[in-house]
Write a structure and sequence with these properties.
binds magnesium ion, disordered N terminus, binds pimeloyl-AMP, globular, alpha/beta, three-stranded antiparallel beta sheet, seven-stranded mixed beta sheet, 260 residues, 7 helices, 6-carboxyhexanoate--CoA ligase, 2 domains
């Protein structure tokens, strides 16, 4: 019975898929995904990632890599950010709501504008752009790759209880977005995040911060547009490497508790 008393071992499972060759050889990014799994659940986790990439609206991949590795550092638990919905009738309205929320979170106007220009130069990112609000410039230069946040998840049962409680759809996409936003915003250097999908049929995005929570915006781009966005506005570029380590290596499990 000693085994049952120990904390369960988790594995980080990651997937990336592309078309016209692997990403590093100029292939088009199709899909990526990250999960935490117990040993017994590995097959199921890998299948979820496989399904995600094999039937993707950005196209069929001709390159895919799935890998898992045991996590031997402690896993931190976080509560999901509170969620609010902002209805937008047009892209212009949605973008203006996003801009206002970013300013409310403490991102200066110049940073919002410059980050936007930076984004336009890289329409094929598979990770996030880090943008420092002090120097008003992109940091952590990774070009097309961006920084990919990893090692985070939310156990399905707990997520579904949360979704039912708030009358939200039990969608894998919403779960993944809220998990990522919660992890990113929990770091003290993060001021805010701006995101919308690169999937042509998905136009809802969000602005998130510790202060504002997860502010969903129902329209941030036009249908058919394959340009996505993920920008983390940060303050504290002098501690860039520990920040990137947190995003890539710190394991986070989201745990919801009712009535809290
Ligand atoms: N780490 C860093 N950047 C990422 C990650 C990650 N783990 N996953 C995705 N990205 C970046 C990458 O550049 C993608 O091109 C871009 O974000 C969009 O990713 O209904 O579906 O997975 O409330 O297409 C938000 C709204 C949906 C959900 C976001 O993003 C809702 C979405 P996607
Ligand atoms: Mg996508």
């Amino acid at each position: 019975m000693v085994k049952a008393l120990r904390e369960e071992t988790f594995y980080s499972v990651r997937m990336r898929a592309s078309q016209n060759g692997p990403h590093e050889k100029g292939g088009k990014h199709i899909s990526g995904g990250e999960q935490l799994s117990t040993y017994d659940n590995l097959k199921q986790s890998i299948n979820v990632l496989l399904d995600k990439a094999l039937s993707h609206s950005r196209g069929n991949p001709d390159f895919m890599q799935i890998q898992f590795e045991m996590i031997d550092e402690p896993i931190k638990k976080l509560k999901p950010l509170p969620i609010e919905i902002n209805e937008a009738g047009s892209v212009e309205e949605g973008q203006s709501i996003a801009r206002n929320l970013l300013e409310k979170a403490g991102v200066p106007t110049e940073s919002i504008e410059k980050a936007h220009r930076e984004l336009m130069e890289h329409s094929v990112l598979r990770g996030a752009i880090l943008f420092d609000i002090r120097s008003c410039s992109r940091i952590g230069d990774r070009n097309e790759k961006g920084v990919r946040v990893s090692r985070m998840d939310w156990l399905t049962g707990d997520f579904e209880k949360w979704a039912d409680h708030y009358n939200m759809s039990r969608s894998q996409r919403l779960k993944e977005a809220l998990v990522l936003a919660t992890k990113v915003s929990a770091h003290p250097a993060t001021i805010a995040e701006l995101c919308w999908s690169d999937d042509p049929e998905y136009i809802t995005g969000y602005v998130a911060s510790k202060k504002l929570g997860y502010q969903r915006i129902t329209k941030l781009k036009e249908y058919g547009d394959e340009r996505g966005c993920r920008i983390f506005f940060v303050d504290g570029s002098s501690h860039l490497q520990p920040y990137i380590d947190y995003l890539e290596r710190q394991s986070i499990l989201i745990q919801w508790e009712e009535d809290e």
